Sequence to fold (119 residues):
Amino acid sequence: QVQLVESGGGLVQPGGSLRLSCAASGSTFSMYAIEWNRQAPGKQRELVASINNSGRKNYADSVKGRFSISRDNAKKMGYLEMNNLKPEDTAVYYCNVRGLSGGRWYDSWGQGTQVTVSS
Fold:
C-alpha cells in the first residue's frame, strides 16, 4: 500500500505563493500519474494539475500560467507551485498518485492540505 502525505498549505494573501509537496511511501512501487485536486466548501472536487511518468503536464484553465506541477521520481515526491494566488483558489488540496506496487495497480490519495487565500 502506498501512503501519501501532503504539506505546504497555509494562509496567504492574494498575489502570494505557496508550494505544496506530496510525499509517497510504501514498499517497492512506481509512480505513473501524479495529480493535484482541490475541493472548496460546497463545491465538487476538481482536478487542478496532472503529470505523467513521461513528464506530460495538464492544467485546469483556471490555474494555467499560475500553477506549475513537477515531480522527483528518485525522492518519490510530487509538487505544486502556486503563484499569484487568488481567493477562489481557497480549498483543500489533495494529492493523488497512481502506479504499480507489487505488480498491482494502486490509486492512493493523501489526507489533504488546506490553502486559504485571504487578505
In short: The CA atoms of residues 38 and 69 lie 14 Å apart. The mean pLDDT is 96. The chain has no helices and eleven strands. The radius of gyration is 14 Å.
